[in-house]
Amino acid sequence: MFAIAISLIAIWLTFRFRQDEQSSPLWKIGSAVVMGAAIPVMHYPGMAAARFTSSNIVPDTAHAVSTYTLGFTGVSSVTLLVWVLR
């Protein structure tokens, strides 16, 4: 509940003060802090709720994409996309 509430408040504050030239810079900084706080407020309870169990079964990874290939492709694609759109 806290994660949903703080993320909604952060999004509301972000859109409220984004284009407002009359608002104080402290309000914009405060809304950025709330937005930054929303991330760990959602992440840490979610990770605390996760439960992992060990298994004796070895997964078949014959058809899995290697993380090296996936990472290289993803980073390269995003870098080129940002470069082209800039």
pLDDT averaged residue by residue: 85
Inertia-based shape: flat
- What is the CA-CA span between the terminal residues? 38 Å
Contiguous uncertain segments of 5+ residues:
none
What characterizes the major β-sheet? Answer: none
Per DSSP E runs of 2 or more residues, the count of β-strands stands at 0
Keywords:
mainly alpha; flat
Protein architecture, described:
By secondary structure, this protein is mainly alpha-helical. The protein has a domain at 2-49. The protein has helices spanning 2-17, 25-49, 67-85. The model has no long low-confidence stretch (mean pLDDT 85). It is 70% helix and 0% strand. α1 (2-17) packs antiparallel against α2.
Give the topology.
Elements: H1 2-17, H2 25-49, H3 67-85
Summed up, what is this model?
The chain is mainly α and 86 residues long.
